[in-house]
Each structure stands twice: as C-alpha cells, then as structure tokens.
Here is the input.
Amino acid sequence: MLLRPLFVVLALSLSLVVAACGSSDSSSSTQATTAASCSKADLQTVSSGKLTVGTDKPAYPPYFEDDKPTSGKGFESAVTYAIAQKLGFTKDEVKWIVVPFNSSYAPGPKKFDFDINQISISPARAKAVGFSAPYYNAPQAVLALKGTPAASATSLAELKDAKIGVQIGTTSLSDVQNIIKPSQQPQVFNDSNDTVRALKNKSVDAIVVDAPTAIYLRDFEVKDSVVVGKFAGTGTPWGLVTAKNSTLVRCVNQAIDKLRASGELATITNTWMGPYTKAPALS
Here is the structure.
C-alpha cells in the first residue's frame, strides 16, 4: 500500500525536475542567443546609438594627428574607427571624450564604452577594468639628451646610474624599476607633458616611454635628444579598456579578430607605426 503513493510522488517529482530543466535550458538558450549578438542594435553602449571612446589629451602622434582624435588620422584614431565600423557605427556615431591616462583603468563606473590610449594589459589593472584582445605590442625605449652618459649607453646595465624620468602608473615605470633597477629612484611625473618637460629642462638625463613615442619625441619635440634603444623582447600588449565585466568586450574582440584576419589591422599599423619602430635593442 505504501509503494504506489511513493512511486507516484517520485514520478511527479521527477517530472517536475525534468520540466524545470527543460525550462532552464530554453531560457539559457534564449539568453545565450541574445548575449551572442554583436549587432549594433543589441550592443549595450553608454549612449544609445553612439560609441563613446575615451583618450587622454594631448593626443600625440603617431597615435593621433594634430591632437584631434576625430580626424581618423593616426594609429589609434584609425584603429578606433575601423573597430567602430565592424560594430556597425558610422564615423559620425563615434563620440570622443577626454579621459586622463590613470583614470582610464581606475576602479569604478566608466563614461566611455572603451578607452584607447596605449594602455598596457596587466593583471593588476584587469582587477578593476576589462581589456580587449591586444591590438599592438609596444616595446619600451629610452630617450636621452645628447652629451649625457645615458645617450651613449649600449645596454640597460649602463643606465643604472642615470637620472631617469617616467610617468606614474605606466609600464615604463615598472620596467625601469624591475629591469634597469637604477641606483637612484626614478623621478616620477603625473603625466606625459611633465615627463617630457623634465627632459627638456635637463632635470633628468633620460626618460623611458613606449618606443614609437620616443621616436616621435626625438624627431619633433625634444631638441638634441637621441633614442638610446628599445628594451629587447616582444613588447607589451596594448588593449582597449572597458568597464569591468562589460558585455562589449567580446564584440570588440570579434572586430579586432576580423581586422587582423583581413590584414586591415596590419595595414593600419604599418601606415602609422612603421616609421616609429626602428631603434637598436638594449639588453
């Protein structure tokens, strides 16, 4: 007498579990389909129908021309518009805002969909923000004033006693501390302007920046300077910064993958970065 009711209860429970699983699978499938969509209409952006992009000011060549990110000229401007196009946005639908370098990867909500500003991907930064797949690998380089001992260095070891300037919060700073290991603490500056100004004023013997930046500064900004060389190795990957757990990252990565596969990213890179990569290697 007890067997039949128990069987009925178990059968009913099993049917409910199966039904619940079926409902969950259906819901998950629907959600996955929605999440998988990278069509413009499904993208969750800061402003509806717009792609808001952050970068610092001033925006130097070769990343931006004439301090105008909107021009489409310069490596990072061109990369941005190429990604935007893959996401379905026209040039007029891309909105640029000024975001100081250190603020881009600080914890908290973001006023941009992504920020592009030669930002190195690192585990420490990834704790607070999201990163896209790399769009460029950049070695660090040393820019020194002619006539200083640093200018004639042929290895990183020969820079140990130099007065080195570097921007706070950058990969350049960590590389100076961990690779050069100078005998005196590097002088740290709040932004790129202050760092370059210190070299011009001879407050430091040399500065460490990304190699393309060093070459640009030598050619156009810092008189009587020389690119001593770039750190040997493959370089540091740069990524687009997003808010932590942003749903946009996967779609941006798809866009970057398409640009890389088609050869468009290589063309953009060669066009704008080609002249700014040649420097002797320092090890």
In short: The chain has two domains: 41-137+237-278, 140-232. The chain has nine helices and 13 strands. Residues 45 and 139 are 32 Å apart (CA to CA). Residues 1-34 have pLDDT under 50 and may be disordered.
